[in-house]
Design the sequence.
């Protein structure tokens, strides 16, 4: 379903070696799920609520614990309430870069001789600054000399690194590779371990952010990120189009920037930049940890106080994110590239905390939720205007007002304008014709089944608990969401469709073939 487009725009999954577990599912649902017995959901939710324990350490760090003894496994999600939206101008890509560096180890883990390594890392910083200054002054010979010394020192430092020691410890303990994800709104670190390794996780995860060494392999990792950007953005027609589209849809809000950042910004990032960003946002009061599985909540609290209680209390960062002004006229962006033609369309909508969030969930599933959805049946099957299509209920994030978004690949022999016209007809139907009781019930069943599938997974539940806690103020709102979905009426759908899908609120993007 065209998921290749989202890399670099919405989230980036960074892994110590290879990804072996899916990231936690977020609040929005954009893909259909196999219907399940919806009548079983509410009793399941009621039981789950009773098994949740929450506590906050004196330093402000929040823990949510859900005990499940079905299997001797525990899933952990460390949720940092910081994402690409929090980056200052000129420093885009820093949240994602920091997440990569968080796997490099600490002053004790990942090094053979930290004192010797530290001196080399300090020298690399000095040389990098000198190289930039020499380049600015046009001193080519000086640049060449400094670059040669830089490469020599970097080689010496690399010999003191214990590659991926964090990941090796986790695998030896019976867990998969470390996983993490940076989005516009948040950064998450997540993996699972056998139940008897709870204290090991406490030790590893607490030390990772207590004494990190972000300078280790900093410059190699920067090259890796730049190569990823070239692959997913500069060398990808849909990646380039996505960047242009969101830059057009948003004028002042940082949702206009890619999560991976701009090339020039990434090149200019320094270890001091990353360290300052870390010290600002990775404070205890800005972290939430969800633990789901075969655990004793009392033991979790005792160990949390021992290991995470070491964190120094610091003020929570104050958001300085500009408010996006209302869109007053249609916006359009067109690119001609060697590509299959694609059509993009988005409309501004409110944040996840808005009372109509469940209505947008239903609208999204009505339009593109699987092969029974309206857009698939009309645009793909009946009219054969699109090869494939997808949508997102909230993009690039949902913590702040965002977009409800459509994307389709145009079928051979048809144009993006034909596809756009057909899409508009389906959207207009939502405004004019009340959704039938039968269709609405089918979609609600899909949404409920998708929610239940996530709740049955330890990692899915840990992701949702932490997400709801941070973005809505309480994990309990997760369990109220079912009632909100059930309460959506045909009149609600018409009301929200009329308010949202207006010409002046519309941004369209056309990716056209160079030969077309």
Sequence:
């Amino acid at each position: 379903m065209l998921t290749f487009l989202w890399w670099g725009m919405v989230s980036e999954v960074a892994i110590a070696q290879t990804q072996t577990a899916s990231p936690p599912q977020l609040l929005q649902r954009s893909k259909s799920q196999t219907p399940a017995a919806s009548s079983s959901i509410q009793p399941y939710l009621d039981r789950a609520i009773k098994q949740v324990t929450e506590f906050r350490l004196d330093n402000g760090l929040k823990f949510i614990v859900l005990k499940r003894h079905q299997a001797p496994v525990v899933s952990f999600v460390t949720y940092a309430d910081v994402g690409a939206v929090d980056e200052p101008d000129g420093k885009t890509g820093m949240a994602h870069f920091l997440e990569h560096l968080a796997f490099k180890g600490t002053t004790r883990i990942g090094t053979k001789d930290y004192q010797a390594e530290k001196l080399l890392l300090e020298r690399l910083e000095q040389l990098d600054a000198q190289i930039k200054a020499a380049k600015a002054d046009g001193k080519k010979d000086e640049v060449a000399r400094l670059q040669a010394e830089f490469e020599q020192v970097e080689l010496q430092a690399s010999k003191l690194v214990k590659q991926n020691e964090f990941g090796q410890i986790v695998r030896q303990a019976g867990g998969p590779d470390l996983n993490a994800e940076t989005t516009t709104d948040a950064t998450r670190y997540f993996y699972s371990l056998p139940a008897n390794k709870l204290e090991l996780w406490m030790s590893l995860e607490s030390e990772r952010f207590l004494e990190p060494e972000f300078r280790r392999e900093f410059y190699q990792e920067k090259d890796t990120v730049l190569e990823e950007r070239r692959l997913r953005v500069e060398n990808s027609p849909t990646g380039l189009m996505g960047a242009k589209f969101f830059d057009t849809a948003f004028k002042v809000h940082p949702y206009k920037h890619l999560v991976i950042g701009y090339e020039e910004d990434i090149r200019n990032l320094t270890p001091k930049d990353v360290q300052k960003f870390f010290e600002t946002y990775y404070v205890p009061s800005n972290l939430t940890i969800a633990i789901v599985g075969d655990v004793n909540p009392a033991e979790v609290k005792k160990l949390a106080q021992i290991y995470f209680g070491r964190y120094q209390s610091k003020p929570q960062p104050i958001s300085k994110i500009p408010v996006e002004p209302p869109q007053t006229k249609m916006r359009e962006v067109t690119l001609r590239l060697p590509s299959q033609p694609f059509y993009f369309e988005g409309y501004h909508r409110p944040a996840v905390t808005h009372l109509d969030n469940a209505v947008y969930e239903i609208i999204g599933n009505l339009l593109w939720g699987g092969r029974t959805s309206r857009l698939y049946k009309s645009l793909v099957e009946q009219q054969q205007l699109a090869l494939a299509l997808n949508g997102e209920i909230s993009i690039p994030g949902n913590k702040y007002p965002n977009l409800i978004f459509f994307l389709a690949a145009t079928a051979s022999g048809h144009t993006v304008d034909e596809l756009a016209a057909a899409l508009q007809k389906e959207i207009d139907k939502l405004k004019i014709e009340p959704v039938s009781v039968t269709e609405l019930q089918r979609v609600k069943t899909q949404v409920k089944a998708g929610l239940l599938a996530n709740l049955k997974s330890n990692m899915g539940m840990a992701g949702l608990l932490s997400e709801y806690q941070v973005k809505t103020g309480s994990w309990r709102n997760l369990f109220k969401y079912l009632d909100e979905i059930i309460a959506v009426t045909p009149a609600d759908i018409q009301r929200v469709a009329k308010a949202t899908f207006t010409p002046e609120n519309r941004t369209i993007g056309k990716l056209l073939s160079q030969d077309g």
About this structure: The radius of gyration is 24 Å. Confidence is low (pLDDT under 50) at residues 1-39. Residues 114-136 form the longest helix (23 residues). The CA atoms of residues 360 and 393 lie 6 Å apart.
